Amino acid sequence: MADAELLIDEETGEELIITATGEPPLSPLEEAEYEQDRETVINNLGTFVKVGLALKRIKEKRFYRAKYTTFEACVKDLFDLASRRAQQMMQAASVMALLESEMRPDAKDLSHYAGHPVLPKNEEQARALLRAPEEERAAIWQKTVEKYGDKVTAKCVTNVIRDEIGAGLEEKRQKAKREPSEEKKEPHKPFMDAFDEFWRQVNAAYMDDWKKVPKKDVVKRLELILDYIKNH
To answer: What angle do CA 92, 95, 147 make, to 5 degrees?
Structure first.
């Protein structure tokens, strides 16, 4: 075994195989699967689904353990992939697998999608769906296709998610208005307006992937507000 050390137990005379990481070596089946996944990544770096799923198997089954102590070290050495990039490809592939599992069984009912991209065409479209809760991703994708047809882009997906979030917040706000509080009083309108605007800004920052407004800054200011409310 290339990446393992063969030792002899002085007392029993048995051969002891120790991997570079001190863990049990790969079984013949694991070695075959690892070799297949490794070749998949090398030969299909432009195909994010195949690569993402292969990387996911390597990570989840810890095929890298024979030579590397971490998955990150493995992908950097073998494929020259940064851990963040590998994570992105795995996430996008997982989204595609989810959509296929939820949409393929009903393909006969999707005749109105004729000529449309029933599944995302590229990694950017798939990764855009990560902004939506997992249980809502298939529905978000179908709404995106219904709205944009064969002109779907990652930005289109983001727009639909933003619309859905906004609609959900508005529904909750209207419900809160209909349900009387314990004191039977409506919330102070200026406060509610300010609160709604705060929600809009937070969602805008979220949809922008926290590039302009760091998430930690929002959390820090929320903690200050909570402290103020508790102490006054």
So the answer is: 105
pLDDT 10s digits, 128-152? 999 888 888 998 998 999 898 888 8
> Same domain, yes or no, for 211 and 128?
yes
Nearest to 99 by CA among 120, 69, 83, 123: 120
Intervals of the chain under pLDDT 50: 1-2, 4, 6-9, 15-16, 105-116
The burial class, CB within 10 Å (0-12 / 13-18 / 19+), for 167 is exposed
For residues 155 and 227, state if they share a domain: yes
Question: Does residue 11 sit in the same domain as residue 76?
Answer: yes
203: containing domain? 116-231
Tell me, yes or no, whether 190 lies in a domain.
yes
Q: Structurally, how many domains does the chain consist of?
A: 2
Q: What pLDDT is recorded for position 61? A: 92
- State pTM to two decimals: 0.58
Q: How far is CA 194 from the centre of its chain?
A: 32
User: Positive or negative CA dihedral for 27, 28, 31, 33?
Assistant: negative
